[in-house]
Amino acid sequence: MEILQEYKVGVLSPEDKEEPCDVSDPYSGDPSRHPILKVNSQKPFNAEPPPELLTDSFITPNELFFKRNHLPVPNINPDKFQLVVDRPPGAKQGKPLKLSLKDLKAKFAQHEVTATLQCAGNRRSEMNAIKQVKGLDWGTAAISTARWAGVRLRDVLLDAGYTEDTPNLLHVQFEGLDQDITGTKYGASISFKRAMSKDHEVLLAYEMNGEELPKDHGFPLRVIVPGVVGARNVKWLGRIIVSAEESPSHWQQNDYKGFNPNVDWDTVDFSSSPAIQDLPVQSAITEPRPGEKITPNHDGNVTIKGYAWSGGGKEIVRVDVSLDGGKTWKVAELTGEEKEGLAWAWKIWRLEAAIPVECNEMTIICKAVDNNYNVQPDSVAPIWNLRGVLNNAWHRISVTVDQDEH
Q1: Exposure letters 280-311 (e unless 16+ CB within 10 A, then b)
Q2: Are 305 and 53 in contact (CB under 8 A)?
Q3: How far apart, in whole angstroms, are the C-alpha atoms of residue 115 and residue 313?
Q4: What is the dihedral of CA 323, 327, 330, 331, to 10 degrees?
Q5: How many CB atoms within 10 Å of residue 258?
Q6: Which H helix or E strand runs over 160?
Q7: Angle, CA of 41, 53 and 332, to the nearest 5°
Q8: Which end of the chain is flanked by fewer CB atoms within 10 Å, N or C?
């Protein structure tokens, strides 16, 4: 809050008259957002926090959690809300299972999980520097961590009549209540095996960091699939379909897929590539900022901070940091939440290191290693793709050093 104080604009008075709402604008009902966010698009709203605030705390405050919307934010009356879950083929109860928020909270045990969500386009701006791609120009902050509470998807599917052995079912499709002017709704899917797994802790979440879900984050109900790309964590969840096929949604079939660097928009075949699910190992420097002039402390040291995360429940075991462009490396100190089993949340890392007295310019690099010894590639060009997704190359920044102050 101390960091945010300098950005305070003022205090809204309840007596202030609200501006008239343009009902012809499908985005007129969108919620207000924190002014500190870097906006990548207004309609739909997509924004990220200043990177240095990401590593100010292990849990990202709701108002600073990155915002990724594909369509207008729907206005949903929680008292009239119903989740529709299709029944298995041949079930005695022919009609779909319908659950209100009250039903979900009364019928099923609450479960909590701390999980990091990351947009597939995180760090896309670095791919744009190689060659322009189609997509929002995300920096390093399209990633955040929250404590989610809700009910296990597995419990709801069991209640609807599914079991792990229900035949010919491979995917669980999620349909959101957000839609465009043609009525097309956002949708995505994950594997049936993951949905039914106790270990993967897939949630139908109604709380975020101890509060009801904010409108931008899926109020009143959303899917949280720990370890999986943000695009599958469907917000404003309205319907669940278990099927032999993936979601037919555009965002499952014709987006959020990776390709060879030489594939262009004239030759791309989206059916040839699998939909992104688990994300690769990732890390980034949040302090200092690129281009910043840094001043060593009285011992001649500077502090470098950042985050590291890996998809699929793999734990970050090491972050290497170089202050000389990759010639030598030091190991950063890691902090995070202790958890048995699969690791869903990031690690915050920190390194205090000495700067040579004669050094006036410096290239700082970080790279992370997970517990499967997956490592980040050293450069962006070989993993460039036309949609600018899956950028997990070593993160580099250049800074100047104010030796005079030291």
Answers
A1: bbbbbbbbbeeeeebebeeeeebebbbbbbbb
A2: no
A3: 10
A4: 110
A5: 17
A6: helix 153-160
A7: 125
A8: N
Q: Match 């022919």 to its residue by tokens.
A: 94
Distance between first and last Cα of the chain? 29
Contact 397, 364 (CB under 8 A): yes
Q: Which residues pair with 264 in a beta bridge?
A: none
Question: Which residue type occupies 351?
Answer: L
Helix-then-strand count for the chain, H and E: 7, 22
Under a CB-based contact definition with an 8 Å cutoff, are residues 385 and 263 in contact? yes
Q: Which of 380, 389, 155, 93 is nearest to 256 (CA)?
A: 389
Please give the single-letter amino acid code of residue 176: G
> 12-34 in b/e burial notation, b at 16+ Cβ within 10 A?
eeeeeeeeeeeeeebeeebeeee
CA–CA separation, 143 and 279 (whole Å): 12
The answer, as to whether pTM is greater than 0.85, is yes
Distance in angstroms (rounded) separating the CA atoms of residues 240 and 224: 14
Using an 8 Å Cβ cutoff, are 371 and 120 in contact? no
Per-residue pLDDT tens digits of the chain, which is 406 residues long: 556 555 555 555 544 444 455 668 999 999 999 999 999 999 999 999 999 999 999 999 999 999 999 999 999 999 999 999 999 987 777 799 999 999 999 999 999 999 999 999 999 999 999 999 999 999 999 999 999 999 999 999 999 999 999 999 999 999 999 999 999 999 999 999 999 999 999 999 999 999 999 999 999 999 999 999 999 999 999 999 999 999 999 999 999 999 999 999 999 999 999 999 999 999 999 999 999 999 999 888 999 999 999 999 999 999 999 999 999 999 999 999 888 899 999 999 999 999 877 789 999 999 999 999 999 999 999 999 999 999 999 999 999 998 765 4
Q: Classify residue 101 by its DSSP letter.
A: H
